[in-house]
Amino acid sequence: MRMILFLLATMMFIFLFSPVSGQTDKLIYDQLIRTENPRYYHVPVGLCEDYPEETTTPEIMRKDMEFLKAHNIKLLRISFGWDAIETQKDQYNWLFWDDFVKMAVEEYGITLIPYICYTPRWNSTCHTDTLFFWSYPPQDYDHFGTFMKSLVTRFKPWIKTWELWNEPDISIYWKGTVEDFSRFTKIGAKAVKEADPQAKVVLAGLAYNTQFTLQLFRDYGVSPYVDIVNMHNYYETWHRYPVENIVGYVNEMSEIVTLYGNKQSLWMAEVGYSTYRHGSSVSSSYTAFYDYEHTPDYQAVDLFKRLVLVLSTQKIAAIAWYELKDLPQTEEVIGDEYNNRYLGVAYTDYKPKPAARALKFFNQLFAQKNKCIDDLITVNRTIGSESEIHAFENEDGSVLVAGWLKTNLPGKRSTDMSGNVKDTRRESVQVMIPLKLKGKIVQYNQLGESIPFKKTEKYSAGIRIPDFILSGGQITILQLNK
Asked: How many domains does the chain have?
């Protein structure tokens, strides 16, 4: 009798949760691994959203999926809560995630890239800490492997990447050592591969401390266990660095992989910029100078700039912006009580911020495979120029050029600490593109609003833009068709 009941339960699970091929065929996991030295490459850009089981409703899930559909987003980073799924040892509650995964994948064709956190209280090395027990290493590391094997086995028809933990380089999320985390990662990675040999293991997204990843690879032999290395970025929100420093950050991580890795793909599957400020204060790490900083309008500009910068490195395989919508005041947050609530591209009621439109336009403009041609173009600037210019060639031969004036210029800002400084800067630069371009040229802003652009000249090798105008707090984008 027990065997019959077990077989009936198994058949019912297979019937209810077998994937529909028409939707799973739309998943883009094959695009999330960057091939070595591709001539042209398309970088998928998605969103992030966390789903606390205790507060998320079917209505919220449905509204999120409809928002993704309306903005043509196919990639979503989510979090599976080990501490919420297995509140008691060997007792799993899958109900919420069975419903969520089926809706996201089967109905909407969303490619899910989950990370798995945090330690259940019963397995925490500090279970007496009622507030932060979840951030301590587990007492029984092997049981994390048991959990991962169960998780991957259950969802492997729908999910093919598994990120093990989140931002372990900062103590708020991991109160263990680097060596502890290397052991944790190896156990989890082995379990993933045993459950699904085709799945990809993602190293926990790095907050900012590249030395943590360096030690994992160089000193503790983690590289053979992971297929993808993830990094996060919140420059100018939770870090004083200018957003343009993101290029050096990506290059540093790439160098670690080159020296000590196994040609892992790189992700930036959590990147963002908040719409919070109190006077000039943004966070303990950053203070606004110009009046437009950390406003909804400028978040859209920053989003476009940040994505262009990441693409210009030619080293990132996937990007996910954090996050879909702002957090309601009733929802608890980890860490910064303020900025964490205002990172969405939509408000809590799903009304889109300008950043949602900017993200949709970015994905439209960069829909083709492309390559950065910064080393091909020539930019003539005045001495002391504060401009940033990047150019890309699409597979069809068209060219995209994006330029702006840097907002965060350490050492160049005045002593005005009000945060209300008006940005009256304006520069003209000359851009020379040694390609034969004869088609229409259109100028856009970050929202995709266009105006005709006629200020071009031909020269022997290609086309010259003699007066590429850049204004403070804005971005100028050109599309030059072949």
From this structure: 2
